[in-house]
Amino acid sequence: MSDPFGLEPLASGGYGLTEAPRIGRDGTVWFSDVTGGGVHRIAPGGEEVEVVLERRRGIGGLVLHRDGIVVSGRDLLQIRADGSQHVLFAPDEELGITGFNDLHVDRNGWLLAGALRFRPMAGEEPQAGRLVVIGPRFVAAAVEDGLTWPNGIGLAPDGRTAYVCDHQHHRVLATAVDRDGALHHEVRTFAQAPEGHGVDGLAVDAEGGIWVATAHGGGLVRFAPDGTVDRVVEGLAPFVASLAFGGPDGRDVVVCAVRGEEGGAVLRGRSDVPGLPTPPCLV
Question: Which positions bind substrate (predicted)?
């Protein structure tokens, strides 16, 4: 299938692995550079890229906070609107956490974080990862069994199912969510990536479709709520890392990709179906 979003370059040149896209309700676009370092921001309707955070590498996740943003990496770092910084959560030696990858926010404003127990960029042997839930006064390790390299995270429209990509095994896992927001420990394989595709970032649309960036597959896959493949979009770039919906009507789309010798890029388009709104983090 051809590109359904009419994607056009928004930012490119000088980036390594662009990742962690977010779109504010006013249309502000945020993204990171995993290998080159830093967090970048583009104002609504603009094209000029502003550096929000310099040098920090390994940021695979970014969410909006009621006061600024939260980014992943060696710890979970809040960057407040005034530019000050606050570590929300540092790696826990008892849990064996070496750092964090993708992030999401649930309906309570709690933070969902993919916790790593090995350093993939350093070539370390894969170890089982975890999906960690962080609230205002608690931290709980939820999904553990069957998850190795946690990546994209999302929730179903009713909030009762959580999805997390396992980059290592090219699949999307799912687990039930209680009414109070607690995640079950039992997981199931929700969907397997089509042949030749991987799984990386994830975003859910208002119809309950689960969009997954296919990494070296070079495109996107939309899974229906029952886990069947609904659409396969190919040929966007050699490597497609992540995507996000947002903007005033939820129909703006940004995709982070690596376009060969051009390096990392951020592509922008529009969707017929809006994305599922994500509240700001309240932790």
Answer: 101
